[in-house]
Amino acid sequence: MITVDAFVVSDDPAWLDLRGTYDYLQANMYWAAKLSYEDFVRSLAFSAVCLGVYQTDDANRRKQVGFARVVSDRATFAYLTDVFIHEDYRGLGLSKKLMEAVMSHPDLQSLRRFLLVTADAQGLYSRYGFRELGEEGSHWLQIFRG
Known about the structure:
This protein is an alpha+beta fold. It has one domain: Aminopeptidase, CATH 3.40.630. The protein contains 4 helices and 6 strands, in the order ββααβββαβα. A 6-stranded mixed β-sheet has the order 1-2-3-4-5-6, with helices on both faces. It is globular and about 50 Å long.
């Protein structure tokens, strides 16, 4: 758990606002446009790590303002996806704190390969060691059902 002023990053699944996270992804993220709520919930159940960013108050109430999900075997491979910070909370360093929590998570320390796909956040992810596949990428294949 990382605390930044009134914000906490946690991997406690009981803290997640499932409906709020799904609704945000549906409304704001191009990659989630066709995702059903049932598929979203199933994706969380079979993911290695789900992290939420929460605003807390003096009464210990939490409001989820960010999210990241890691699909992984927890030994050699991981895929980072569904990352967001609600637009009302951007510019506070929360995406960096979320990424610090992802990169330091104990279940993800022995990974040989960690992947993600982004159309617009290369600057953020490069700070944590993510690079383009380069020539090595020519060996990768995919089935994409957009």
